[in-house]
Amino acid sequence: MRIWILPFIGLFVVSGCGEAPKPIAPPSARPNIVLIVMDTLRADRIDARRKGKPVMPFLSRMAEEGDNYRNAISPSSWTKPALASVLTGVYSNRHGVRHSARIEDPEHPTSDVLGDSWTTLAEWLVAQGYTPWAFQTNANLTRALGFAQGYEERQYRFSNGAPASEVTRAALESFPQLPAPFFLYAHYMDPHAPYRPVPELAEALGAEPVMSDEDRAILDDDGRFMDYYLDQVKTAIGLQSAHTLPDLGKGAKEAVRHRYDLECLAMDRAIEELVTAVREKHPDTVFVFLSDHGEEFWERGGMGHGVTLFQEQVRVPLIVVDGQAPGNVHEGMTSTMAILPWLAKRLGVPPLESWSQLDNGAVFSETWGPWPSLGVHQSAVFSEGHSFIRNHGANKSELFGLERDPEEWADVSVSDPARALSMGAMLNSYLAESVASESATVPLAPEDVEVLEAIGYGDSGH
Fold it and tell me: Order of strands across the sheet with 363-367?
């Protein structure tokens, strides 16, 4: 048995296997809890401005009002393993959720499933007397894939890719009927590729950058754009030696970022509407805002997420707003998985022994890529303002000092060998606890594969 020290909230967390939730928290310690996951949201968008206008004004205010963890790291750089970890408190090296659609056998596609041996956040809160309700919009997080554990059938509503306004509307229709204390989980999908902002906000952040007619035809066609997107990904990671499609021009690339920002703005407004309504009726509510991963826009010559562990893909917003005390800015590194032990402390109940957490301030992240044929396997440890990233396929490790080099261009492993050795040992310890068996999978119907491929998860023909 190993005892991990969790500096983030001052808790001791004991490493072990999955087990039943602990007894109910005292009623006085049971605020309502609202978990808002903002899919694909980079950390730098919270305070970003475009043409002098804030991209996410409401979330920026929440960051000032609550506890703002400015250097939060996702346990993976794409949705499925990241949320499996956030919702169970278990790193992906143990829960084994690695891939989205597996098309090794085109006649029998499968997908990794979150096993029921792990206690989810919803299951744990039900044991504390909570009524759970979820509005899910990401096809990687369906009931069939194990992500509805703890919810009754009617309590886990799924609408693939629903816009932010629809998520908020559905939540507003339901939460007045939820008995307190309730746990409301709303998953907003908007900033995810193929970046399709709502028309009424087209000019909200200034005019769209000028581009050629050829480039506009690609950006306005979801199928063509996703082909371009995947071509960028595969070339950047070396899966193919050269691009198979023409590159976008400078104006079109900036237009992609502009459309992404417009989706962030739409999501921000919808979240403000939800939070305002909940607060009016239930002032004793804890709000947790986080993203599952970031997004690359050509920083490494590619796009998207799930294939590296650099800051643009793993550094994410993490904001906790609790009316009990004023918030603070936290500059130290932490993991989005820390919300579970934070909630345990807030509720006055012991953490589960299954929760694996931070060891002396070190947090970890890992990706195997959204599907196996990408050939991706990277793992990383983040500690004391540094990142140590290992590319297993290339048999290469790099060390970066994030204060001086936030974009991670200069490998300092040679000039700082002691730190490289220390962080390499931390990562080796993490990897030594990895599951030995293959991930559990479930069959996928053809329509499931089509839905996943439409947002960049799948490999039949791409």
Answer: 363-367, 378-383, 386-391, 396-401
